[in-house]
Design brief:
The complex is a heterodimer of chains A (82) and B (202). Chain A is mainly α and 82 residues long. The N and C termini of chain A lie far apart (60 Å). The longest helix of chain A is centred in the middle third of the chain and has 18 residues. Chain A contains 5 helices and no strands. Chain B is built from 10 helices and no strands. Classes of the chains: A mainly alpha (82), B mainly alpha (202). The complex binds zinc ion.
Chain lengths: 82, 202
């Protein structure tokens, strides 16, 4: 396979896949080489990856207890007639 | 409500609960509600951005699920099937609500025009050092709320719900490449939003 030249643009286009570990091995290697010598891309990569990790580590909008109670209540009424 | 006495929640899987519900056991459906209500609520809240609407929609989604349970295919995961009903319901409501403004969401990502901020920040600044867990969670919720709908739904399905690119594409009726490009934009926008917010106290 011909070695594709990595530009900042081509790295950025695949940034999500790279963060998700969803790129082929040979592409991953070329991206890693690019990151090692391109501080701009490294910053974007590092911050974006940390952003994703922060979101994955939090349960946003926890279910309020009264909402669950009302849900079961409403369903029990509606489903009697269903 | 003595659910716990009738169903030992860890031992029975969703599929079995569906089977029992179909056989007329309402307590089994209540257990499915117990298991999945929090996730469906979160999804609904993310998409609609409104607590009351999310609650309303939560009731509809489970009601619809119950009435369509005979269409559920046992090869699928119950939760995935439920999410499909829930997302369709939420998107339908959004479409009714909004006045048809369309934005180009899938244009090429520009890197030369300065829209993508690249300034370096200290590598070890950690939002959790300055904010409590609740405060951070609120910041995250607001950041997601501020995304355009097209980016928000993709981000929520992929990064919050953990669905695959293919599942997200199917659900939203988008191409794989549109899902990927929207996810990237959502992530980059969130990165910018959080950076601005989390640094304002520093
Ligand atoms: Zn670069």
């Amino acid at each position: 396979m011909a070695k594709k030249k990595i530009t900042c643009q081509s790295f950025l286009d695949d940034l999500s896949d790279y963060i998700d570990g969803d790129v082929a091995q040979e592409i991953r290697v070329t991206f890693e080489a690019h990151l090692a010598k391109c501080p701009n891309c490294w910053v974007v990569f590092d911050e974006t990856q940390r952003t994703v990790e922060i979101f994955q580590g939090y349960d946003c909008h926890p279910l309020p207890e009264n909402v669950k109670g009302r849900l079961l209540q409403t369903l029990s009424v509606k489903l009697k007639n269903a | 409500m003595s659910l716990r006495s009738t169903i030992d929640s860890q031992e029975v899987d969703d599929l079995e609960l569906v089977t029992r519900t179909r056989a007329g056991d309402r307590a089994s459906f209540d257990e499915l509600v117990n298991r999945h209500a929090a996730k469906v609520f979160r999804l609904a809240r993310h998409i609609t951005r409104n607590d009351a609407e999310a609650e309303d929609f939560l009731q509809d989604a489970f009601y619809k699920a119950y009435t369509r349970l005979d269409q559920f295919n046992a090869d699928a995961q119950f939760y995935t099937w439920l999410v499909r009903i829930a997302v369709n319901e939420a998107l339908m409501r959004l479409r009714k609500r909004r006045n048809n403004k369309t934005v180009s969401l899938d244009a090429e990502l520009e890197t030369e025009d300065g829209s993508l901020r690249r300034e370096a920040v200290s590598p070890d600044d950690n939002p959790e050092q300055e904010f409590s867990r609740d405060e951070t969670r609120k910041l995250l919720e607001e950041a997601i709320d501020s995304l355009d709908e097209g980016y928000r739904t993709v981000f929520v399905l992929r990064d919050v719900e953990g669905m695959s690119t293919q599942e997200t594409a199917d659900l939203l009726e988008l191409s794989i490449s549109a899902v990927k490009s929207r996810l990237l934009r959502a992530r980059l926008q969130l990165r910018d939003k959080l950076k601005g917010r989390l640094h304002s106290h520093g």
